[in-house]
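Input record (one chain):
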Amino acid sequence: MTVNKAELSVSELVNKIARALVDRPEEVSVNATSGKEGTMLRLKVHPSDTGLVIGKEGRIARSLRTIVGAVGVKLKHRYSLEIQDPRDHSSEEK
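The corresponding structure, as predicted from the sequence alone:
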């Protein structure tokens, strides 16, 4: 599966924002997966940084999703953001 330039830019944007929020920026990764419904961006951070990217009552996560949605409107493509739970190993790709 190929990743187009827009997907790369959006995942880089999420990566840069997340790195600015966390204590361990070297452990931030964003995986983009294209499907028929759009592109799913999976944000993975160190387990101790999960709360920093979710924020109080999910405010930071909601803001990140708003940014990703706004970029999607501009690019006429649907993007979704998932923050991976470090305790949930079922969402990892095999």
